[in-house]
Fold:
Amino acid sequence: MNRIGNRDNNRRANAERRSTMFLFTLPTMILYVVFFLVTMAIGLYYSFTDWNGLSKEYSIIGLKNYTSVLTDYRFGKALLFNIKYTAAIVIGITVVALVCALALNNVKRFSTFFRSVYFIPAVISMLTVGLIWNELFLRALPLVGQALGIKALSSSILANMKLAFWGILIVNLWQGCAQPMVLFLAGLQSIPSDLYEAATMDGASRWARFRNVTLPYLLPTLNIVVITQTKAGLTIFDYIKVMTNGGPAQSTEAVGLLIYRHAVAEGKFSRSIAESMVLFVIVAAVAALSLKITNKSQVGE
Amino acid sequence: MGKSKGSVMMKAVCYIFLLAGLLVILYPLFLTVITAFKTPAESAENFFALPSGLNFENFINVFQKGNAGLSFLNSFKVTVTSVALILITIPMCGYAIARSMDRSKYYRNIYYVLLIGIFVPFQVIMVPLVMYLGRMNLCSIPGLVIMHVTLASSQGVFLIVNYVKAVPRDLEEASYIDGCTTFSGYVKVVLPLIKPILATIMVLNVLWVWNDFQMPLLLLNRSPEMFTLPLFQYNFTGQYTNDYNMAFASFLVSMIPVLVIYAFAQKHIISGLTQGAVKS
Structure:
């Protein structure tokens, strides 16, 4: 072709390419700037004020919201709930999903069928799942409790201060294991089968094979599951809003719900934003930390 | 010999475990279905028993007393427009970034700025958003669509950029030599090449938008004529706390569309959802 001869044409084509590429980024970037970044900036600004969300006047109070968030008993309690919950859900989902994946990987017949059914909860909304279990805890479980003579189950466990935490956790496990299970299954299927055979020939026990062959292959997946579930646990909202609304007696008031309540119901607009910024810092720190650990373990390999 | 006996045992244990899991998953859904078809009297008598017949009254009530039909339509509109806009805008942006970030700082910078969105919890923008959109008169269905498209961009662009980077440029360049403009080359050559990742993005976002509760709760909870299905269910169950058979009918109504789609496009949905998790 006469590409070199047509330098002028080439230049025009390049200019056309560059301007089109730039235009391609505009719709997304305009939306992102106007509706995401600006919203965040507005939030950050108001977090330094004492605005209640309604009044015409407000004043700038600097870091006062932040200091009072960090010394607030209710926020501390909510954060503690999130930390406990996140630990429980990360461990719970990892263990249950991994066991299901190992079992699925071990069978041939019906394994597609099992996988399809096990994945169903992942496509239903958290809200619907929460509402269904709400009713089951209220109507069905007490009947079982009465029949078995277990007193703790005679009323909804969501209304019980000690058990509500576990109620939410059960529902979250019921729904949340599906996706990690499929991820683990894909990880398991990527392990070359001759590795197992070699390990078996060497007389490695089942546990030794799991530790030395399976686990290293699952580490990347494990890492993804831990990060996504940690973020989900720290920002949990839907289940709590629907099942306990923070109760009984604020025992399940997670940070996400506290922010919502402060802003929507309790007129602490600027305070609630400061709370959300603290939550952001925690989520970002956890994410950065886990990325660092991953990088290190990958270098170590 | 001992070894093979052990592995047969292991298989049996696996099957028993998997069957138990099947029960755990399906029994609550089964209870949902039968309760939705029962009258309150039947449920009061025995919660676990099968209904005496197919009684559609609960469903009729859901559509007449509550306005499930309208909410269904709203959810449908919101999902279709949001996902259509997502599939138009985000691949363009991701493609431009992937192809230009080597030569231009602008694209590198917007890429990193977009990635921040992955780490920001929704709660951070939740509170100022209501006020901000309220001032622009966007606490409405269009506002909800705009927010879905906006909040889908971080993950979407990330998925596209990674995918496009692995696609060789040869075909695009050939199309330019054939006289295609950048835009027509994108539509005719690039889009067909990146179909798998577009499918992933579609699956992720259809499910997210259809099932989203937090954002409609914030933006639309004032007027019932704007309710989406999750919001409808939430308010409906709150309103008829004692008629829980109706509540179960409303759960079923909102689950059926996704379950039907799941039945037909299972493979795509499972792989889409898991791919999205791997990369975000």
In short: The two ends of chain B are 47 Å apart (CA to CA).
